[in-house]
Amino acid sequence: MPPWSDCSSRSSVATPLISGIGTSGDKQTMFYVEVTDQMKKGPGGGNPKEGELIEVVEMSISEATSYMAQHEVQSPGGFMFALMWFFHNKVHI
After folding, report:
1. Are the beta carbons of 32 and 16 closer than 8 angstroms?
2. Are 25 and 18 in contact (CB under 8 A)?
3. Where would I find the H helices in the chain?
4. 78 Cβ partners below 8 Å, 6+ apart?
5. How confident is the model at residue 2 (pLDDT cuts 50, 70, 90)?
6. What pLDDT, on the 0 to 100 scale, is given for residue 14?
7. Predicted pLDDT at 31
8. What's phi and psi for 5, nearest 5 deg?
9. What confidence tens digit (pLDDT) does each residue in 6-65 have?
10. If you average pLDDT over residues 69-88, what whole number do you get?
11. Residue 59 near residue 78, CB atoms below 8 Å
């Protein structure tokens, strides 16, 4: 069963990316899905019984823009890439 089998049928592959350079680089696949409050069935964050420990962070577009504009951002490059992908492909700021 593919790892994305529990993703919604509304999800789509945004893009594959390499999460690092050199021998520490790892290929990841980023998914994108739009979810409204009415669609939610739970708080999110994965299933801890299956070893999924996913932190759910909700930001408005304004908050995400301000976050990215900080002098020092404490986030992995993959997250920053995901925000840039979102702004380029969905928001067009």
Report:
1. no
2. yes
3. 61-68, 77-86
4. 17, 19, 28, 30
5. very low
6. 65
7. 81
8. -65, -25
9. 555 555 656 777 777 777 777 788 888 787 888 888 778 888 899 988 888 888 999 999
10. 87
11. no
Q: Which of 51, 82, 48 is nearest to 68 (CA)?
A: 82
Contacts of 90 (CB under 8 A, 6+ apart): 32
Residue 56, both tokens: 């759910």
User: What does DSSP assign to residue 12?
Assistant: E
Asked whether 28 and 85 are in contact (CB, 8 A), the reply is no
Token pair listed for 73: 């951002």
Q: Token digits for 67?
A: 């976050």
DSSP three-state, residue 27: strand
For residues 93 and 38, which has the higher predicted lDDT (pLDDT)?
A: 38
Residue identified by tokens 């993703």 is: 7
Count of positions (residues) in the chain: 93
* Predicted TM-score (pTM) of this structure: 0.66
